[in-house]
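Progress note, sequence design subtask.
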């Protein structure tokens, strides 16, 4: 379940922060993106997205992760922004780490803190 989605302004740059709680599946992540777009919560002014997974259990495998990456790359806005994934467990960090190393079509990076993710998105 995606519990909180909020838009934050950092030095006049917009970042969408999404906090996940409980068990979260790929289908739920994609559905949450569809909701975000249908409610106009994100647009071309967004510099990046932080997905905070520190309070969730990610129900994902490599096949479903590939499905999520395909969804992100098919959306013009999502393809052109930075995606920071915050987690403190190896089972979760493995997905953005693999994407970072293997897929140059999307800018994604794992982090252990939200502050570090903000710094990366804002190129500090």
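Output:
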């Amino acid at each position: 379940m995606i519990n909180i989605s909020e838009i934050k302004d950092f030095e006049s740059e917009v970042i969408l922060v999404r906090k996940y709680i409980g068990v979260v599946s790929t289908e739920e992540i994609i559905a949450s993106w569809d909701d975000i777009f249908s409610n106009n919560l994100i647009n071309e002014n967004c510099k990046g997205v932080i997905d905070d997974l520190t309070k969730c259990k990610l129900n994902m495998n490599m096949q479903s992760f590939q499905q999520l990456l395909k969804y992100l790359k098919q959306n013009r806005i999502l393809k052109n922004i930075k995606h920071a994934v915050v987690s403190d467990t190896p089972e979760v960090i493995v997905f953005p780490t693999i994407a970072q190393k293997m897929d140059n079509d999307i800018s994604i990076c794992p982090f252990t803190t939200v502050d570090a993710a903000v710094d990366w998105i804002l190129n500090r």
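The first helix runs from residue 26 to 38. Work on this subtask will continue into the next period as scheduled.
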